[in-house]
Amino acid sequence: xxxxxxxxxxxxxxxxxxxxxxxxxxxxxxxxxxxxxxxxxxxxxxxxxxxxxxxxxxxxxxxxxxxxxxxxxxxxxxxxxxxxxxxxxxxxxxxxxxxxxxxxxxxxxxxxxxxxxxxxxxxx
Length: 124
Prior knowledge:
There is one protein chain. The chain is an all-alpha fold and 124 residues long. The chain is built from six helices and no strands. Helix 3 packs antiparallel against helix 4 (58-75). The chain is elongated, with a radius of gyration of 15 Å.
């Protein structure tokens, strides 16, 4: 049985983002990766998603969640990207608004955790 490595201070959100994978997408260049992380942080879309959700504007929600999916994939936040994809495809293929209503809240919480993890990483 393998023991998990101890969690470092500020790494409470460990596992949300695969930093090494994200860096690989940036040709293993830390400076380039940090720029991408900053861009994702600055272009935070959770408030827009909340507004579209509240207004039942699922067409704009679908468009926004598509870009969130791509952003998360590009930084190594694979699980969150998959969840965004599930929301996008529920609207795109099935027009399944019920699925979005059921999973939006937990996605927004996850979104916030990812933003916090990026902030922590950029402080280092």
